[in-house]
């Protein structure tokens, strides 16, 4: 997302919301480690608080979510779900899903990944996308060690959900291994120019050390279930590493791809081809795959208000795609479909045994 679109996102306000059951919500920061900057984390969690909710993240373009700030967490232990945003995104993008999960009893944590978030976009020479999976591992460490933040977490019931580049991030946690050399050797012919420009923007293949870091094992054995939402760049993950993934995976792709001309202008590399690639190479007995009807790539993000696309286009030409869905589709219905599929999957994959 470009700078002018960031201005719309940053206009978030908090307003009184009619009192009804809502998740607890708080934000915290993990201290810097090595060269990695401090990590900002947003947390949603079950609470028995009856305090009046506030409307979190309301902007002129996007719908907010009722939460109770800094509420006392409900007793645990509870399963933990990590949310990973896409390139240029932030914790607000999947807040709608976080609220749904918290209502079902999950603790949810969404970090803003330094270097690839709305609030911190770096040059290709300084982006280290291999740090993204490690960010999520650091979040697990923090929540297990500090139950006062969002309640007690069950160490054996941890899952991760990622959209777009976040989908790649969570697949790395599950044991996927990225082969930057193979991808860059024949990128334009195999994957197309938009995909290759995205790789360049992510610093993929810029030097031997970064390629080695990308190819390292970034898995975390504490992860017991994975959900990808129209991930990209999935086709950089080796077929051998995907075949060896041992945890259940739910692969959800957009029912329709973004128009190629629009994708070119917006530099959107992810297509449902990445989801098909995952489904083809992951173990069939532990993998579920579906294309979500009516969904385009950004349909998995937060709800847009009526007229939001026009507002965004005026402020940031070309970026209104974040509020566009397939013709005739309703994003709220898409979210209901996605949420229902995820709840059934997680209910089985993270069942308290």
Can you give a write-up of this model?
It is a single chain. 33% of the residues lie in helices and 19% in strands. It has helices at 3-9, 95-103, 131-145, 165-173, 180-185, 187-191, 193-201, 208-215, 239-243, 260-266, 272-281, 308-315, 331-349, and strands at residues 24-30, 39-45, 54-56, 65-69, 78-84, 107-111, 116-117, 120-121, 153-163, 223-229, 249-254, 287-292. By secondary structure, the chain is an alpha/beta fold. The model is unreliable at 1-20 (pLDDT under 50). The chain has a ten-stranded mixed sheet with strand order 3-4-1-2-6-5-9-10-11-12, sandwiched between helices.
In short:
By secondary structure, this protein is an alpha/beta fold.
Question: What does the secondary structure layout of this molecule look like, with pairings?
Answer:
Layout: H1 3-9, E1 24-30, E2 39-45, E3 54-56, E4 65-69, E5 78-84, H2 95-103, E6 107-111, E7 116-117, E8 120-121, H3 131-145, E9 153-163, H4 165-173, H5 180-185, H6 187-191, H7 193-201, H8 208-215, E10 223-229, H9 239-243, E11 249-254, H10 260-266, H11 272-281, E12 287-292, H12 308-315, H13 331-349
Parallel strand pairs: 1-4, 5-6, 5-9, 9-10, 10-11, 11-12
Antiparallel strand pairs: 1-2, 2-6, 3-4, 7-8
Helix pairs in contact: 3-4
